[in-house]
Amino acid sequence: MSAPSEKPPGTRSRDRALPRFGIAARIAIIVVGALVVVQVLMLVAYITERRGAAPLGPFVPMLQRVAALAQLLEEVGPTQRELALRATTVSGFAPVYVTDRPQVETPAYLGFAAARIRQLMGGPPDRFVALALIGGETVGLGRVERLRDLRGARLRLVVGLESGGYLDVLAGGDLTVRLLGLPVGLIAGILGFMVALAALFAVRRETRPLSDLAEVVERFGARLEPLEVPERGAPDVRLVIRAVNAMQARIAELVRMRTLVLGAISHDLRTYLTRLRLRLELLPPGPQVEKAQADLSGMQALVDDALAFARATFAPTQGERVDLCALARAEVEARLAEGGAVSLSGADAPLLVNGARGALARVLANLVGNALTYGTCADIALIDLGDEVELRVDDRGPGIPVAERASVFEPFYRVEPSRNRDSGGAGLGLTIVRQIVEGHGGEVVIDDRPGGGARLRVLLPKAGSADQAESAASTPAATAKRD
Questions:
Q1: How confident is the model at residue 421 (pLDDT cuts 50, 70, 90)?
Q2: Which carries the bigger pLDDT value, residue 12 or residue 465?
């Protein structure tokens, strides 16, 4: 598993590969988007209908209505006047007949409306006509003087009659049907969003088993540890979970049997290699004996690597707190005793991770061994990244080409195509490293060392870090407990 060299420290490549929106978020976006589209379409339909019903706007017909009613009141007698007023009273249009002139003054911006009513009625040009915007109940039915008073405002029209008296009309206002003081349309919208919210919660509940299943499959792919997912949700989802649980068990058993066979063969080979080595010791020295001993040494190293690979497949990843600084100091002392060019930095304060001490020591030994074999030296550095610990091993060899950085983690793959033990191992060192590191929830990254050479970085979660807490909280058992 490789990564580009420009990736910042502590960044996980697999995190960047995750989808931006999960299935629950996508369903939520679809539901909310559908609601918005429906509301917009309803608004467009309403506006279209209103334009078709009153192409000249509601104001001009209202003036015509007032002028016609005033003319009618001038034609009928006092006994029929009340009947005419009741016949024309509708929601948003309340006419009354008064004998005293109402105290209404026409503002300048409504002067054209007063002139229009005089024109429609005819008669004397000095007829008393007054119009004013009257605020709603919240402003005490007073005159509108501020923009915020326009809410619920009504138009008051007063027309003097030739027969005496005045027609006083209160028109317009808030025609929206209200429930509990709120417009019914607003209440419908609120109820719609509440229903959508409840639907989203239901969708989240139904899709949660799929999220748990995805987390378990991801962890199983990295650690090969079967984790049974509780069978919850719809019948088809339960079938999928049941199939995945069975698949995990079968795959784990197959890998376990493969590992056992590999370990058994490697163990038996070590017995035969020991016998051959003893027999070679009894032979007289010579060139052929030396070549046979070199071949036996290579076979012995290959068997040791195969055994280590078999053990790493199901090696425990949690169990104790391991100080990487102590492991690094022990490895450096051992390499210096053998005459290796090794240096260490950043190991002054303890850096603790959770895992198996032997497995992590194997990681360090393999990285340092590769650096000494291919790069003549190994510069080890330990860096505290907050929630993670970085183990860095630099060498001064030819480096690893970018095109081959993903392949070097495959079993038995070597950048050097030769199988000669003098030029390197069998190609299991980095495979074991990645297997152990990923089993501990970490990552191995290959970069270029500044100035030439290869740089291998191992990122491991620090003991007690948020990543490990999140990993523990995301297990199916913890999820089922939360539900």
A1: very low
A2: 465
The candidate with the shortest Cα–Cα distance to 216, out of 476, 417, 481, is 476
Beta bridge partners of 170: 94, 156
* Of 260, 441, 477, 465, residue with least CA distance to 356: 441
Within 8 A by CB and 6+ apart from 295, the residues are none
**What phi and psi, each to the nearest 5 degrees, are found at residue 280?**
-65, -30
What CATH number corresponds to the domain at position 380?
A: 3.30.565.10
Structure tokens at 33: 């988007």
pLDDT-derived band of residue 344, with 50, 70 and 90 as boundaries?
very high
- What whole-number distance in Å separates Cα of residue 396 and Cα of residue 378? 8
Nearest to 363 by CA among 328, 335, 394: 328
End-of-domain residue from the set 175, 190, 218: 175
142 contacts 134 by C-beta, under 8 angstroms: yes
Check if the beta carbon of residue 436 is closer than 8 Å to that of residue 318. Answer: no
Amino acid letter at 80?
Q
| Helices vs strands, H then E, count in the chain | 13, 13
Q: What angle do CA 26, 29, 33 make, to 5 degrees?
A: 145
pTM over 0.90: no
Mean pLDDT along residues 196-211: 78
Note whether residue 327 is domain-resident. Answer: yes
Of 175, 206, 223, which marks where a domain is finished? 175
- Cα(70)–Cα(168) distance, integer angstroms: 10
d(CA 46, CA 380): 73
Q: In the block, which residue shows the tokens 């209908």?
A: 49
Distance of CA 348 to the CA centre of its chain: 38
At residue 49 the predicted structure's pLDDT band, cuts being 50, 70 and 90, is low
Supply the range of the domain harboring residue 466. Answer: 316-483
pLDDT, tens digit, 9 for 90 and up, residues 102-160: 888 888 878 888 888 888 888 788 889 888 877 655 444 555 555 555 555 678 889 98
- The stretch 10-25 carries a mean pLDDT of 51
- 271 lies in some domain: no
Q: What is the mean pLDDT of residues 286-309?
A: 77
Pairing assessment for the beta strands 378-384 and 342-345 based on DSSP bridges: parallel
According to DSSP, the residues that pair with 132 across neighbouring strands are 156
